[in-house]
Specification:
By secondary structure, the protein is an alpha/beta fold. It contains eleven helices and ten strands. The strands form two sheets. Strands 3-2-1-4-5-6-7-8 form an eight-stranded mixed β-sheet. A two-stranded antiparallel sheet has the order 9-10. It binds acetoacetyl-coenzyme A.
């Protein structure tokens, strides 16, 4: 069965990016969130991103308008009843997600695939809450969604081979590069990325190098687009700590344990770019390293 209509739950940074990618790829796309202001913020972000892509010559003005015409926004779940696939990108809370899945399970036809963009929860725990555990997958996108080519297509113990293939082909139809992963904490990217990010925070905590030098070292020495501390700020320190805690709980390996510095920063409200303060202070342009009470000169 071909996919023509896509539902996206959650219109935050990830959800709006996913909706934008789906609409740009030509799918009829319905974005849903709980309140109008959240939808409005998502819609504004999408227009801004499409405009940027048009200015940079990556998208024609006509393609931008076509994408916008494919998009609709609403607070009601009923608009998602006839979607061929629903991608969920709401807050990382299993109860909230499962309440939505159970409601949609009643609304949607039997062919609709349910896909979660979770980066830390178990796909099996969501699939089990529905009567379509065989038609449940993970589709894990990366921030910023319109620019990052990767999608991890996650197969859990109950996912049928047909569902997995449809989801994989759908990710490709979005213009993304899908990779297959098992429903194991961290999938592929976070399994490798999270310990690296935690090690960078540990290196700073232990005085190995300054914030700028740690970041410059990985950018210039390994060709990474961002250094690890800038990337921590970009993803959000609270988000990384949450993912790391779940991975530590699952694997019981010290490499997944968030270092004390990271926890102190989260307690202090240093969430990174979104709060304006993290390893860098974003109140100035360009951002400058924050002191963090460390002895070493930053
Ligand atoms: N839509 C359209 N354009 C966008 C955009 C968006 N959403 N976000 C950024 N851009 C534009 C910028 O505005 C900028 O345009 P100009 O050149 O005209 O200024 C352009 O893209 C390039 O951005 P920057 O100049 O800021 O810098 P850059 O060349 O370093 O690119 C980046 C930015 C793509 C984010 C790059 O730094 C990068 O790839 N960083 C790593 C990101 C990463 O690792 N993401 C994964 C995080 S992990 C995750 O998401 C999953 C998880 O579970 C935690």
């Amino acid at each position: 069965m071909t996919i023509t209509k896509v539902g996206v739950l959650g219109c935050g940074l990830m959800g709006s990016g996913i909706a934008q990618s789906a609409a740009t790829a030509g799918f009829l796309t319905v974005a849903r969130d709980v309140a109008e202001p959240l939808l409005e913020r998502g819609r504004t972000g999408i227009v801004k991103s499409l405009t940027k892509l048009t200015e940079k010559g990556k998208l024609t003005a006509a393609a931008k308008e076509t994408a916008l015409a494919k998009l609709s926004f609403g607070t009601d779940l009923s608009g998602l009843g006839d979607c061929d696939i629903i991608i969920e990108a709401v807050t990382e809370d299993l109860e909230i997600k499962n309440r939505l899945w159970q409601e949609l399970d009643q609304l949607c036809g039997p062919a609709t695939i349910f896909a979660s963009n979770t980066s830390s929860l178990t796909i099996a725990a969501m699939a089990a809450a529905t009567n379509r555990a065989d038609r449940f997958v993970g589709l894990h996108f990366f921030n910023p969604v319109p620019l990052m080519p990767l999608v991890e297509v996650v197969r859990t113990v109950t996912t049928s081979p047909e569902t997995f293939q449809r989801a994989f082909d759908f990710a490709r139809a979005l213009g993304k590069e899908p990779v297959a992963a098992l429903d194991s904490p961290g999938f592929i990217v976070n399994l490798l990325l999270v310990p690296y990010l935690l090690d960078a925070a540990r290196a700073l905590e232990h005085g190995v190098a300054s914030t700028s030098d740690l970041d410059r070292a990985m950018q210039l020495g390994c060709g990474h687009p961002m250094g690890p501390l800038a990337l921590l700020d970009f993803i959000g320190l609270d988000t990384v700590v949450k993912i790391a805690d779940i991975m530590f709980d699952a694997y019981r390996e010290p490499r997944y344990a968030p270092p004390p510095l990271l926890r102190r920063m989260v307690v202090a409200g240093f969430f990174g770019r979104k709060s304006g303060m993290g390893f860098y202070d974003y109140s100035v342009d360009p951002p400058v390293p924050t002191g963090l009470g460390l002895k070493r000169e930053q």
